[in-house]
Design goal:
This protein is an alpha/beta fold and 545 residues long. It has 20 helices and 14 strands.
Length: 545
Amino acid sequence: SPVNGGNFDEFDYVRYLMRHGISGTGYVPSGKWVRVSSSAAASSHASGFLHFIQYTAISYREKVIDLYRKLGFEGDELAVLSALTVGEKADLSESIRESYSVSGASHILALSGLHIGLLYALFFLLLKPLVRRWRGIRYFRSVLLLVLLWSFAFFTGLSPSVVRSVSMFSILTIADLFGGRSLSLNTLAATAWVMLLGNPAWLFDIGFQLSFLAVLSILLLQKPVGRLLPVKNRIGKYVWGLMSVSIAAQIGTAPLVLLYFSRFSTHFLLTNLVVIPLVTLTLYTAVFMLCLTPLPAVQYLVAEVARFLLKALNGFVRWIEQLPYASLDGIWVYQLEVLGIYIFFLLFFYYSKTRRFRNLVICLSFLLCLGICHTVMYGYDRPHSSLVFYNVRGCPVVHCIGEDRRSWLSYADTLSDKHRLQMVAANYWSRHQLLPPVEITADCQGVDFSRHQQIVFYHGCRICMVTDNRWRNKSAVSPLSINYMYLCKGYSGRLEELTRLFSPSFILLDASLSDDRKRLFREECERLGLHFLSLSEEGSVRFLL
């Protein structure tokens, strides 16, 4: 069974797996497995036919990506094109992911409603002349639209986000066939009901929540926002239309984005104003390029156009990233607070419909209560002078935190996996409003913090980090009293040797230690009567000073 690291505010990986139908993990070392034929591998799964379909879909997706490579796409252009057209994001580098995140264009890389909507509009317009000429072909158009949409979903590997979006537009197609409104709250509710009936766990999926909240916000708020600035000329209407849709979607999704990502992109209006037209052109060019596969010479020419559009798209996103205050990071909101924000939105929306003073008083009173609750929770989470030890394999570190939001990270060596530590502890640091920690990898001397020979002195405490054999075969007239002894990978001696030099009050066993070493140290602690704790079993721990 999978287990979490037990670190403070860490991503709940176990719950994530359970909601995706995974309740166990396995490991097979290299040389202990044999690949059978593709058809046998696909059909041998427990789910049988469904797994075979998904396996076949993924293989076709790989063929499309191989075609992109043959056409000369590489690097970030290939990665973004694969994400836009077939939903493959494995080749996206960390730098391009960060650029799109900071600029507020991350939704572009997630193949979902925007891309399916653009394809739906393309297919709809291409088939529209047929309907005008032959009225009886309307049913054929709807069936053909459904076939094209689900064929596209098949080529993307039937990813959940694409299946969600295609399901929504399939219901829109059926509603249009029977004379219903193309998009309404009833259509959105029916789509959500059908999808959750098929997979109730999607209710907890971030993509599901954000996509439906975005569409709901557009349905409810786009027209009121659009009326705030009446524009008469055609170009102005188009520009303000894009901006009003972006504002409406941003209002609906901002609280959840802050909850899940602790980031708000301040230039989202400018980003979407340019990025959405570029993505539209890129996607339509890519579809045209794929249709030209029987004509390689012409296909290469269209590929050059697509490459130019992709370079322009990535260049603009990187330019937005470099603008001052492109994003506000480290914002921490509580789950209860997010719920309160959405309740406030509903109360304000109700007031805007009724225009009654009583409803305005209720709305503002609720906002005041929400502010008081945030202040109380913010004060409760203010940092205290403390020592924190994390359960992060490959990164032994002592985190010394002060009441003034300053902190020091004392690493065991310069090869520590700092990136992994930051990923694990980022939410914890944000919740306590900590300033960027000062990284310590060598001896130093300061007023508030000092370190010498892997012994950390902070707030009247001594912490000895045992990361190598420097203390072996040493002697002392009397043991040095220390508060915490931190045993890490790299020390090959016994604990009894260390007790001749140090008199520890508490022993901490790092996650980097092997099971045999942890068992040996545990037995020695019990024999010597020392208090101890294993981080790999207990998770991260904090000691208040």
